[in-house]
Write a structure and sequence with these properties.
Layout: H1 25-60, H2 75-78, H3 82-91, H4 97-132, E1 138-139, E2 142-143, H5 144-182
Antiparallel strand pairs: 1-2
Helix pairs in contact: 1-3, 1-5, 3-4, 4-5
Transmembrane segments: 40-62, 99-118, 138-158
Family: Belongs to the jagunal family.
InterPro entries: Jagunal
Length: 183
Amino acid sequence: MASRGGPRAAGTDGSDFQHRERVASHYQMSVTLKSEIKKLIYTHVVIWLLLLAQMIVGHLKLLPHDQVAMPYQWEYPYLLSILPSFLGLLSFPRNNISYLVLSMISTGLFSMAPLIYGAMEMFPMAQQLYRHGKAYRFIFGFSAVSVMYLVVVVAAQVHGWQLYYSKKLLDSWFTSTQEKKKK
C-alpha cells in the first residue's frame, strides 16, 4: 500500500481495493429514503401553508367572501399535521427510531384522519355541484369543493407515500441495528 503522496506498492495502481469501498445496501437505502421523505415533507409544508393562508384570508376577510370561502371544518385539525413532519425531520440526523414511529402514528392521526373526514364532509356539496351544477362557496372563481377535493387527493397521496417510505426506512434502520447486534 502507498501513502497518499508517496510511492505505490509494486504491481498495483490502487484500483484493486475498490470492492472494499462499497457502502452497505441498507445505508444506501437509508440515505435515499431520507431524501424522498424530505421532498414529501417539503411538499406537505407547501400544502399546509396554502391551507393556512386560505384560513387566514377567510377569517380576517382580507378578500371578498365570493373570492375566498370560509374554511371547511376538516381544515382546522389538519393544521396539526405539521407536527408529524417535524418529528420525521428530527428522526433523521441520528436515525432515531422512536421519533420516526411517532411521526408515522401521528401522520395517521393528524394528517390522514382529517383528510378522510374532509372527503366525507364535502361529499354532499360535491354531489350537489355535480348533479345540479350549484356551488355556494368559491375560491378565486372555482368551486371551493372542487378545489378542496383536489387538495385532499394530493395531500392524501403525499402522506400515503410518506408513510410508505417511512416504513421502508424503519425496516432499513432495523436491518442495520440487527447487523450491529450480531457483531
